[in-house]
Amino acid sequence: MTNDYSDFLPQLRASTEQLLKRLDCFHRAQVLAIGDLTLDEFLTGQVERISREAPVLILRYENTQQVPGGGANAVYNLAKLGGKVKVAGLVGKDDQGKALCGIFEAAGIDTAGILIDSQRPTVTKTRISGHARQSVTQQIVRVDRKSDELPDLDLQLQLADYIRQQIPTVDAVVCSDYGDGVLTNLAIESAVVPGKTIVDAQTNLQRYSGAMLFTPNLPEAEQAVGYAIKNPQTLMQAGRDLLNLTQAQKILITRGEEGMTLFERANGEEIKNSPPPTSICEKGEFAIQSWDIPPFNKTDVFDVTGAGDTVVAAMTLALCVGASGWEAAVLGNLAASIVVRQFGTATTTVEEMKEALLSLMNLE
After folding, report:
1. With contact defined as beta carbons under 8 Å apart, do 262 and 290 qualify?
2. pTM for the predicted model, two decimal places
């Protein structure tokens, strides 16, 4: 076991029973997820020969797999982890939109908030892959279908109205912003509720000012603060600057193989169900405390695609059932350590998370 765990493992062991209880309660959480709904298609075939028409491969078609991507992956992760999920978003009047809604309905997701946009296609990313006999499958090209135009104003108003109606009925609101036009200013104004809204946005975090929690990855955090995060000092400064920029209560920066760091505004009291913070900084307008959480899986990482959506989903459900920010971050980290072992966008379950948590207890 690496030194990354020497201080952390005792904290994890002391919290294991409580973390297992949080997982057992995930099914109680009710969440409204708003996002840019994307369909990921994986089309696979066997390479037969080079075309006579052009210097390109000819594939003998084998199969197509369709899975939720983008903001839809966050929605799907919430459902697969047991949450009761309502989704708000847009799909086109096309087969891809029907397929995505069908996947959601099969997972028990309430799709009443998915509106049909007849002017724009369902955001779809089609990855075409091929293989020769007895060789690995490799991606050849990706075809994206999307529109750079915003939805019609009438659709924006309908979506905002649906969001406002549903907020009193849920424990949390998740905004999964991939920049594809669903989360307009109208939608954001309806969705941001202090103490209730969790934001996963790639850019313009300040648009969601007042949300409870933001979960940028390291490049997104660096873009937001305008400088490189390369040591503990700049990391702490970035946490403070992000809390100030967003007026949030919590910021989680995911840092890949370095794990993740949670920042919270300090109120002078020890936060319940959290170990002592890694760092406390009382400089500036408000005090902050932070916790470093090491990666739970460094060796079996095959694909990090969609891992951020998994982190958001697990954290959201944990916070809904009373977890502290630290507990929620640990469970988010745990969920991500499972899905990165699989290729493509993936999900995990409460049972898999329990098994993974208990296996960590055997590490020395």
Report:
1. yes
2. 0.90
Note the maximum CA span of the chain: 73
Crossing angle (nearest 10°) for helices 232-246 and 218-225: 70
- Residue 339 burial (C-beta neighbours within 10 Å; 0-12, 13-18, 19+): buried
Active site residue 200: no
* 60 beta partners: 46
Over the range 205-238, which residues count as b (16 or more CB within 10 Å of their CB) and which as e?
A: bebbeebbbbbbbbebbbebbeeebeeeeebbbb
Q: Which of 117, 177, 200, 309 is catalytic?
A: 309
Extract the residue ranges of the chain whose pLDDT is less than 70: 1-6, 268-273, 297-306, 341-346, 363-364
The 10s digit of each residue's pLDDT in 69-121 is 999 999 999 999 999 999 999 999 999 999 999 999 999 999 999 999 999 99
271: left (phi over 0), alpha (psi -120 to 50) or beta: beta
User: What is the pLDDT, as a whole number, of residue 159?
Assistant: 97
Instruction: Encode 302-355 in three state secondary structure.
Output: CCCCCHHHHHHHHHHHHHHCCCCHHHHHHHHHHHHHHHCCCCCCCCCCHHHHHH
Task: Dig out the tokens for 347 from the structure.
Answer: 């999900």
